[in-house]
Design a protein that fits this description.
By secondary structure, the protein is α/β, with parallel strands linked by helices. Helices cover about 55% and strands about 10% of the residues. It has 21 helices and nine strands. The strands form two sheets. The chain has a six-stranded parallel β-sheet with strand order 4-6-7-8-5-9, with helices on both faces. About 5% of the residues have low confidence.
């Protein structure tokens, strides 16, 4: 038989202990023209063989049978229920560490398959994929920052899901910075810091720490994490941090610790664009078995722009209200839910734009409406008038009233700003940025 002949070759190629522990227990459970199935005692055994011996097994099978077959590792019946004292519990080389992962509760849907990729998050998603593949191209550690609800936790959960599924013997520690601090303090009080250090320094292959911004002012925890980082980086381990701002903007963080966190790839997740938000709405609606018309999907995507958790809240709210209306979803219902969730959409008006410009240029509304011709006031006033004309349907006279000016002054301001944007690149970029900000109000 093909497998028996391959095993004989493997016996000569490998040491006796390796062969008896990792090759001999494998049994051929199926042989087809294009593949051979080898049965493993349990999933940990399967993961270790896949990582360390699958290539040599494939090679020796090819030597026996030139018709190259794909090797499939399967689990034997009852493998998951194997008793602790049974055969599978003994199948461990002396130098193979026991799995000692500590992982916070993982959301079942926070996987790579459920993550909606767009321009705003593609680099972070790709980097997390690299972490699961032990690809060191991103550097010794990965740092992801974003505001709340944009997918940081989804990606770290996805990393944990992937690693535990494909390489369950990986010693993975996943916790928040506050949990790490709490655990460290308890070990200090119990005088058991040696076991704490052993757990993280010697029994850790990948470390995931969320919300490092919460370590502000916690000097002892920062020192301990910094020491741990140094140890893990030197050993080539994988590290992922998340926070609500980039390392350079963290407050009350030790400079050496800040520097180590930024030693690899630092990437931000931005709010998703309209196309990504549309796909998120469709995905969430499908998960909740809620049928939405295209106009409903467009409305949700247009009005929920920040925290994408609000999409799920909106879907749940629409479904609940529709249940009270015999399952009917109309635009009025969708608008009600959105109004309750994120408020009524603001329509841009000259008054709103005037207040916005005052905040951007740090001047008061009274100063902007005054007769002063100071440059520090004239330019913001002209920009405000230009943006009013661009983003509202108001007449020149109506715009002028907001600034105590007549229509001719508004027209002059529009010509001045238009000319500057055409001649001066920095002014043009400034006006474009202000326009973009206005659209998010």
């Amino acid at each position: 038989m093909v497998w028996q002949k391959a095993k004989e070759i493997l016996r000569d190629e490998l040491s006796e202990s390796v062969y008896s522990l990792w090759i001999d227990p494998l049994e051929c459970s199926g042989l087809q023209e294009d593949k051979i199935s080898l049965c493993c005692p349990d999933r940990f055994f399967s993961a270790y063989v896949a990582r360390n011996y699958l290539e040599i097994i494939q090679a020796k099978l090819s030597d026996v049978d030139p018709q190259r077959r794909e090797v499939i590792l399967t689990l034997g019946r009852g493998a998951a229920q194997a008793p602790a004292g049974g055969k599978s519990a003994q199948l461990r080389l002396p130098n193979v560490p026991r799995n000692s992962s500590s992982v916070r509760a993982l959301h079942p849907r926070y996987t790579f398959a459920e993550f909606m990729v767009g321009e705003s998050n593609i680099l972070a998603q790709s980097a997390c994929r690299s972490i699961t593949l032990a690809d060191d191209s991103i550097g010794p550690c990965l740092y992801i920052n974003s505001s709340t609800g944009l997918g940081k936790s989804h990606l770290t959960h996805a990393v944990a899901h992937q690693i535990l599924a494909e390489a369950p013997m990986t010693r993975l520690h996943y916790l928040t910075a506050q949990q790490f601090s709490y655990e460290m303090v308890n070990n200090i009080k119990a005088n058991t810091m040696d076991s704490f250090k052993q757990k993280y320094h010697e029994q850790c292959d990948i470390l995931l720490v969320e919300d490092v911004h919460s370590l502000t002012g916690k000097k002892k925890t920062q020192e301990e994490l910094n020491e741990l980082l140094d140890s893990l980086i030197k050993c080539g381990k994988r590290i992922v941090f998340t926070a609500n701002r980039p390392p350079r903007d963290l407050i009350g963080i030790d400079e050496e610790f800040r520097s180590r966190m930024a030693a690899g790839l630092v990437t931000a997740i931005q709010p998703p664009d309209i196309s990504t938000r549309t796909r998120i709405v469709k995905n969430k609606a499908q998960q909740h078995n809620l049928k939405l018309e295209e106009e409903h999907i467009d409305y949700l995507a247009q009005h929920i722009k920040g925290d994408i958790r609000q999409v799920e809240s909106a879907i749940v709210g629409i479904r609940a209200k529709a249940h009270l209306q015999e399952g009917v979803v109309d635009m009025s219902l969708v608008e009600q839910v959105i109004a309750a969730l994120v408020g009524l959409p603001k329509s841009l008006s000259p008054a709103l734009i005037r207040e916005f410009i005052c905040k951007q240029y740090k001047v008061s509304c009274d100063e902007l409406q005054s007769r002063s011709r100071k440059k520090a006031l004239t330019f913001p006033r002209q920009v405000a008038m230009y943006l009013c004309r661009k983003h509202t349907e108001n007449s020149l006279n109506e715009i002028g009233k907001e600034f105590n000016r007549d229509h001719s002054t508004v027209l002059h301001s529009i010509k001045v700003v238009t000319g500057l944007t055409n001649r001066n690149i920095s002014v043009g970029e400034q006006i474009n940025l202000l326009s973009k900000k206005l659209k998010t109000l």
